[in-house]
Write a structure and sequence with these properties.
mainly alpha; 2 strands; elongated
Length: 85
């Protein structure tokens, strides 16, 4: 805690010889999330749609398997932003 002009506030002081990359990544990721939410991207709705499309994880060591009847790439002509919106 520091005090200036009668006000107390918190500051982050990096200990000598320590790395700060993890905190930087977390702050940048939070900023990106806030930006997406500002543009009204409905992340929970999209996550549920992807989860429903993917189905349960396979029990075979080959990786994810596309469920029968679904194309491997559901919308190749749409951009990433359009697919996430």
């Amino acid at each position: 805690m520091k005090e200036s002009g009668g006000w107390r506030y918190r500051v982050w002081e990096l200990p000598a010889g320590k790395a700060n990359e993890a905190l930087d990544c977390r702050v940048y990721a939070y900023g990106a999330l806030c930006g997406l939410l500002h543009f009204e991207l409905q992340l929970n709705r999209r996550a549920e749609a992807v989860k429903a499309w993917a189905g349960p994880a396979p029990l075979v060591p080959g990786g994810p398997v596309t469920p029968p009847g679904l194309p491997r790439n559901p919308s190749p002509a749409r951009s990433l932003v359009q697919r996430l919106a």
